[in-house]
Amino acid sequence: MPFTDIDIHEDELWHRMPDVLDQLLRDHTTGQNILWCTHDYESLGDGYGYHQPILPQLITGYHRQVIRPRVMKTREQQTDRSKDKAEVFTPSWVCNAQNNLVDEGWFGRKDVFNTENVELRTWYTHHERVTFPEGKTWKDYVRAVRMEITCGEAPYLVSRYDATTGTAIPLSDRIGLLDRKLRVVCENVDECSEWLEWAQLAYKSIYGYEWQGDNLLLAREALLYTFIEYYHAKFGRLPMQKFIRLIAYIISWNLWQMDGLKGVVPDSCNNGTKNTIQDIFGIVKENETCIGCKTHKIKQHIGRYSIIKDWEGERNMTGERGKITPFVNFFNKDFTC
């Protein structure tokens, strides 16, 4: 697997681990695949419609270069997506500055992982082992929940490349929220099985949602390859496929497709207008009016609410860890549009 490429090739992933690509395309809310939710690919023909699912055969083989990072799209495509869904990706130096503020609040001090150079719009990485404030440990940091809203290609979570320039970022200088957690795990754990346990906890602690299916797949792929890269750097070999499958499963839950203003599958409530996505999932009755859309109250939509997994929560019936809950109930019970 070529780690240096910023564009992860679905074709190669499909041939090496088809079940992993299947998992990265999974939508746990609907039980089907994530949807395109963009008009960009409709000219390619049947299967590429706005409300149609992204299938492996549509992005592999002859179609292996259909999905590409934003920086590799034409200027016209970038402009159209900005107009349609306000898609504007953030430079890595800005992501770093904002992530540093998050860590400053958690650690109680500045410049924990790096020092910013505002004039040059870059940063200088501190390579010495991270120390933790009194009363907190590295395990607390790894478990701390983080989320990137409207995540796009997830530049705040992982920073394999600068989303605006396409410049690859060396592993040792990465600044994503998950990158920082994995760095801490690498600094504090040497035994492989224990490392894998804490890497899983790191992945379970980060969340993100996105409307457009191609962006969501790119984000999921970036998180998966980030795991492979950190494992390879730590142990000098690639992880076993069963570990890659497990991380892909966690990612497929924690990065999901959603209308962030409503908490539902995109376009699944449309003021009672019968449409394709409603036909597929049987979400609403014909001519039914969505009170949530009219009143902007997030808990009164008739669309299908996106579900996520609270990995620390207990299932009501069995007491096992991994409670499935609607997103709007998990993060903020009082959240309104």
Structural account:
The chain is an alpha/beta fold and 337 residues long. The protein has twelve helices and nine strands. The chain has helices at residues 10-16, 18-24, 75-85, 92-107, 138-143, 177-188, 192-204, 213-235, 241-254, 276-281, 291-295, 327-330; strands at 26-27, 32-33, 114-117, 122-125, 146-148, 206-210, 255-257, 307-314, 321-326. The strands form four sheets. It has a three-stranded parallel β-sheet. β1 (26-27) and β2 form a beta hairpin. The chain is globular, with a radius of gyration of 20 Å.
Write the layout of secondary structure elements.
Layout: H1 10-16, H2 18-24, E1 26-27, E2 32-33, H3 75-85, H4 92-107, E3 114-117, E4 122-125, H5 138-143, E5 146-148, H6 177-188, H7 192-204, E6 206-210, H8 213-235, H9 241-254, E7 255-257, H10 276-281, H11 291-295, E8 307-314, E9 321-326, H12 327-330
Parallel strand pairs: 5-6, 6-7
Antiparallel strand pairs: 1-2, 3-4, 8-9
Cα end-to-end separation: 42 Å
What can be said about the biggest beta sheet?
Answer: 3 strands, parallel
The percent range for helix content is 25-40%
- As a percent range, the share of strand residues is 5-15%
Keywords, please?
337 residues, alpha/beta, 3-stranded parallel β-sheet, disordered C terminus
Task: State the gist of this model.
This protein is an alpha/beta fold. 37% of the residues lie in helices and 11% in strands.
